[in-house]
Design a protein that fits this description.
- By secondary structure, the chain is α/β, with parallel strands linked by helices.
- The strands form three sheets. Strands 6-16-15-10-11-12-13-9 form an eight-stranded mixed beta sheet.
- Helix 3 links the parallel strand 3 and strand 4.
- Helix 7 packs parallel to helix 8.
- The two termini are 13 Å apart.
- The mean pLDDT is 97.
């Protein structure tokens, strides 16, 4: 399967906003308005769908959410689709999405993370269209820390230009910003020092491959199905697989990663990147130990505390992009090329 990239987003392009999982509660609508105004200030027309209700854990019935997302991804006038954030049960869309119609349409950027991994990772694996695992719409007003790229930096970049990111060396250790109280907040609280950690051993890492991955708690439910089958994806290339834990304890994450490995998700991995997490350790097992227990048998470099998880800041990764990861005592970097 050949990876296809949507064309770079340009001023004047239309961006669709829909909630394939959770919508936006009334108290958070101010933040949504700020994020939309930011996109409009860059010259984009923003089209907000009907599936946005935030009064329960889903924005609308599954059939309506699936139809709205498919409609946006097959509308040639919409060049990017950005959900406000993740949620809990986006898995109910998967039997209802028209993947064949989406594959036939001109590629459209889809951006998201957390529960949106349930959609964007299968979308790339089944259609070959690159997707962006990165900060979502409600995160967009934040200023991007030095060394990182936002999803807007990625989707506006010329195809073929290397996109380099380096960890800023700081992250947020506790809490989240209250959008109801501070809808216009733009500065991320990064109160704790921290760098990437190699789990499988010592020594320098310099490895290349195609990027694919997402949230462990949501993707594990697709393991062993065609929706998470990496065997025919970008055939001939090694893979750089990234995973991240949202909230499950170390015992659950260990079981989930073992199951994903047994189902073949990591079979072509040249390295594994693991997002920094605030998920709890177990009494006798840490989150790092859980990863190593499950994925150590792969015999590939495993690098943890990468900025691709539920701990701010956010490092944008493109499912399908060619990537190179370097991790030494003096330097940590990931370079992606949309080629």
């Amino acid at each position: 399967m050949t990876v296809r990239y949507p064309r770079p987003l340009r001023p004047g392009d239309r961006i669709g906003v829909t909630s394939p999982s959770s919508g936006v509660a009334k108290e958070h609508r101010g933040r949504l308005d700020v994020a939309i105004r930011d996109l409009e200030a860059r010259g984009h027309e923003v089209v907000v769908g009907r599936c946005m209700d935030g009064s329960t854990h889903v924005s609308a019935p599954a059939a309506e959410r699936a139809a709205e997302l498919t409609g946006m991804l097959t509308d040639p006038a919409i060049r990017a689709v950005v959900p406000p954030w993740g949620g809990e049960t986006a898995i109910d869309l998967l039997p209802l999405l028209d993947f064949e119609a989406i594959a036939r349409a001109e590629p459209t950027w889809v951006v998201g993370w957390s529960d949106i991994s349930t959609i964007i990772t299968p979308l790339t694996l089944l259609t070959g269209v690159a997707t962006v695992h990165g900060n979502n719409l409600m995160d967009t007003p934040y200023r991007t820390p030095e060394g990182l790229l936002s999803w807007l930096d990625v989707v506006t970049a010329p195809q073929g230009r290397p996109l380099a990111q380096t960890p800023p060396g700081r992250h947020r250790s506790t809490g989240w910003d209250d959008y109801g109280v501070h809808p216009g907040i733009r500065d991320l609280t990064l109160d704790t020092a921290g760098s990437w950690t190699r789990l499988d051993g010592t020594g320098d890492v310099d490895v290349e491959g195609r990027l694919i991955g997402g949230c462990i708690e949501t993707l594990v439910n697709l393991a062993g199905t065609r929706l998470l089958d990496t065997r025919s994806f970008a055939a001939g290339d090694d893979l750089l697989v990234y995973v991240e834990a949202c909230e499950d304890n170390a015992y659950s994450i260990c079981r989930n990663l073992h199951g994903m490995r047994l189902a073949g998700f990591f079979d072509r991995a040249a390295a594994v990147l693991v997002g920094r997490t605030k998920a709890p350790d177990g009494r006798t097992l840490t989150q790092h130990e859980a990863v190593l227990d499950a994925l150590g048998p792969l015999g590939v470099p495993i690098i943890a505390d990468v900025e691709c998880g539920h701990v701010p800041p956010y490092l944008a990764l493109v499912n399908g992009a060619r990537g190179r990861v370097v991790h030494t005592a003096a330097r940590s970097e990931i370079v992606q090329t949309l080629a």
